[in-house]
Amino acid sequence: MSESQTAVPVGQSQRHQSLDALRGFALLGILSINIGGFGLPGFAILFPTIAGGTEGANATAWIITNMFAEGSMRTLFSMMFGAGVVLLTARMFEKGQGELAADIYYRRTFWLIALGLVDGYLFLWWGDVLFVYGLVGLFLYPLRNVSAKKLIRTASVIFLLFSLPGIALLVQGEQMVGDAKTAMVVMEEGGEPTAQQQASYDGLGMLIDMAAPKQEEIDEQIEDMQGGYWSAFSQTSKITAKFQWDEAPNMFADVLMMMILGMAFLKNGIFTNECKTRTYAMFIVFGYGIGFALRWFTTQKALQHGFELEGLIYGFAVTHPSRLALAMGHIGLIMLLLRSGFFGWVISSLAAVGRMALTNYLMQSIICMFIFYGLSGFGYGLYGTLERYELYPIMAGIWVFQIIFSLLWLKAFRFGPFEWVWRSLTYYKRQPMRIKSL
């Protein structure tokens, strides 16, 4: 193979700081949600009545993360992955390596799926998204040359179809929850629910089960997670399999529409800070305006119902418009900060984290595995022992560590350790790691 036919990874000079800063912002923000999944039993990450507390500082912690971060950070992270698809393939064609683009792209994607399995099973993070990202990525390559307008239209159609069930929840949510709970009781007693009750249970049964697990199940989960590695593995592997496979159709559509939108935003210059300042200001005004209004409405409903499912159902009903709106606000905020020149250290820190997004994402799983799980004496076993608000000083500590680690690491190395593994596997060649070796 000639030199012109040998594919190589993107160099530092080809990177966009705006993309790295957005990716870093999303990556750190994701931990503000995931920390509840790492440290609290059941699905208390979504349903506060399961564990973690629902009053005082605990309620405040839930409200803040729900208002600002829930869903929106994953949305932004998905968008950045879509943008990366366009960047990777476009640069290979620019270098005259178009005949290798598909090969490299699919190798990269299959290895991402493998890393998702490692994260979900070996690193014990049941909420891993890399696996789903890899699956969706298999379908994105043919879209790389589609115009931004067509991509936006495609994403909009998927978004509208995926949001339609929320209308029914807004109108009949509390009634549906009541019918579903009644159906569950009737079936447990050996009876037959009415057609309406059965329909409600079929639609909401999974949420009912997630919101109200049996106490013995919670106790068993805590015991397993505080035990040895294999004890925790037996517990998390079941949840991981359910999350990655049973929820795959919903997750697939969710991730697909945001990745397609990210491809469009890269093509039309939104992510590369090429739009007018007024455009980004509008992102902030309308994105945060709509997003915070919807989240405030759903938060009030949750508080009115004491965090029971009857109140939380409104959040699920408007989750897609609210998280997309908030993500748009986040984009506008980071772009204007970058453009203003103020808080340059913030942007530089976020960009360093973003350049090592894969490493930092997996590192969060590894760190939390040792903090929260017992691991036969190697871990601290804090799983299920902390209140919700007590998780956030731990999160802040991980943030600080990852920012400092990323800044220091990138002074000596081209990319993060897991990025190095990913790229070396993708290109079938050990990549130069130290900057001085370039």
If you had to describe this structure to a student in words, what would you say it looks like?
It is a single chain. This protein is mostly helical. It has one domain (3-145, 215-293, 334-437). It is 73% helix and 0% strand. It has helices at residues 17-39, 56-68, 72-94, 98-122, 130-137, 148-188, 195-211, 215-226, 229-246, 248-267, 277-304, 309-317, 319-340, 344-355, 357-372, 391-412, 417-426. It is globular, with a radius of gyration of 22 Å. The chain starts with 16 loop residues before the first helix and ends in a 12-residue tail after the last helix.
In short:
With 438 residues, the chain is mainly alpha-helical.
In terms of topology, how is this protein built?
Layout lengths: L16 H23 L16 H13 L3 H23 L3 H25 L7 H8 L10 H41 L6 H17 L3 H12 L2 H18 L1 H20 L9 H28 L4 H9 L1 H22 L3 H12 L1 H16 L18 H22 L4 H10 L12
Keywords:
mainly alpha, disordered N terminus, 438 residues, 17 helices
In percent, how helical is the residue content?
over 70%
Q: What's the shape?
A: globular
The major sheet is characterized as: none
Number of domains in the coordinates? 1
Please give the count of helices. 17
Any idea what the radius of gyration is?
22 Å
Order of helices and strands: HHHHHHHHHHHHHHHHH
Low-confidence stretches: 1-6, 8-14
Q: How confident overall, as mean pLDDT?
A: 90
**% residues in beta strands:** under 5%
Counted beta strands: 0
Q: Structural class of the secondary elements?
A: mainly alpha
Calculate the terminal CA-CA distance, rounded to whole Å: 21 Å
